[in-house]
Amino acid sequence: MAAFDFTALNPKGRTEKGTLEGDSARQVRQQLREKGWVPLEIHSTAQNVSIIGGIKTSRRRMSAYEVALVTRQLATLVQAGLPLEEALKAIARQHQNGRIHSIILGVRARVIEGLSLSQALNSYPQAFSKLFRSTVAAGEHSGHLDLILERLADYTERSYDTQRRIKGALIYPVVLVLFSLAILIGLLRFVVPKIVNVFEGSGQALPFLTQALIGVSNFVGNWWWLILLMIFGLIFGWQFAMRSENIRFKWHQLILRLPFAAHLSRSINSSRVAGTLSILTASGVQLVDALGIAGEVASNEVIRGAVVTASDRVREGSSLHRALSQTDHFPPMLVQMIASGERSGELDKMLERAARNQERELETLISTSVALFEPLMMVFMGILVLVIVLAIMLPIINLNSLI
User: Fold this and answer.
1) What are 344-353's pLDDT values in tens digits?
2) Span 308-323, pLDDT tens digits
3) For residue 231, what are the CA distances in angstroms to 225, 227, 238, 241, 321?
4) Which of 33-42, 95-104, 319-328, 394-403 has the lowest mean pLDDT?
5) Secondary structure of residue 149 in the 3-state scheme
6) What residues contact residue 195 under an 8 Å CB cut-off, 6+ apart?
């Protein structure tokens, strides 16, 4: 039984899209007619893929929350003894989202065709990361897929929770900056010109601060479209520049030289690398292979290269903690915990503990930064408002002096 994507008209004349299972497109078409729908287009989910490296792959994505939810559901059903294809079918029925429904049914169709779960997941690299697929493959190889899925569910949920809390902490500063900029632009564009026009007609020499404010106000009023164009140009130019590996590498090098940005980048990437190594080594993946996968989750190109270098050293016989310490990109506490895990033979547990420590440190760092940012932003906006008020009040004071 295969999965088919369809487009049809419901009895109200609205277009409906989704995925159904059937032995053939004809059977799916009959299912739609039985519901009173008019089939418009039906094709196998296998047609929505491209060939990359000899493997059929789809570009459909799933969010971190959706992956965490599906993983937990799959782990629960497999541990309950439900056959894999039945578990996937049950999960697909639980999701009304057509995209998730289609992905799960597509995976199930490939499992029914005889592929393993990890091979079926390889068809959706945009939805399931290499870490996810490698961990599932290790679970199938060891014969403990249920336990591996449970551990993977814990990891994905923890990663999603960390991302959610970090994004939540950053919402207020972003809103504050945008709101402050909107107020400042509104003052310069609409308020300041009307007030300053009174002084320009008086014939008196205006203070330098007032003249500067008038110049800025006129520029914003006359060239606002150019400012917007420059902003969008910088955004698109930045995205284009980051496509170059050389420019991206140099930028990441610069980040690791900046005081606060370096600490933040190292914390984020250390947490990702340690968490990935933890789940992979606990799943039975060889350490060298685990390092290769862990390097791909690092967002900083320099740290990613450091992980690859550490992998080469481990392959040559070096211990993990010594290989990481030579890169100078990982916190000493993380390296010491890894060394302790290697000595005690519980590397996977120590990696998990180290990853959680890094996550807590990262959350503390972001919370502290946000707490400091708020008063600094208030002070900055206060200074700007003070400058505007002074630019308006100085001509009034001079005028009163003349009188």
Assistant:
1) 888 888 888 8
2) 888 899 988 888 889 8
3) 10, 6, 11, 15, 44
4) 394-403
5) helix
6) 392
H/E/C letters for each residue in 293-346?
Answer: HHHHHCCCHHHHHHHHHHHHHHHCCCCHHHHHHCCCCCCHHHHHHHHHHHHHCC
Cα separation of the two ends of the chain: 94
Place of tokens 């789809």: 58
List pLDDT tens digits, range 285-303: 888 888 888 888 888 889 9
In angstroms, the CA 300 to CA 327 distance is 14
Give the DSSP H or E segment for 16: strand 15-22
- Nearest-5° angle of CA 164, CA 170, CA 175? 125
Rounded-to-integer distance, Cα 91 and Cα 82, Å: 12
Q: Check residue 49 and give left, alpha or beta (phi > 0: left; psi -120 to 50: alpha).
A: beta
Q: List b or e across 35-58, with b for residues whose CB sees 16 or more CB atoms inside 10 angstroms.
A: eebebeebebbbeebeeeeeebeb
Scanning the structure block, which residue is given the tokens 């310490």?
Answer: 325
Query: Rounded distance, CA 162 to CA 12, Å?
Result: 43
Question: How many Cα atoms within 13 Å fall on the side-chain side of residue 228?
Answer: 6
The contacts of residue 261 (CB under 8 Å, 6+ apart) are: 255
Distance CA(148)–CA(362), nearest Å, equals 27
Place of tokens 């159904």: 20
Instruction: Name residue 381's amino acid.
Output: M
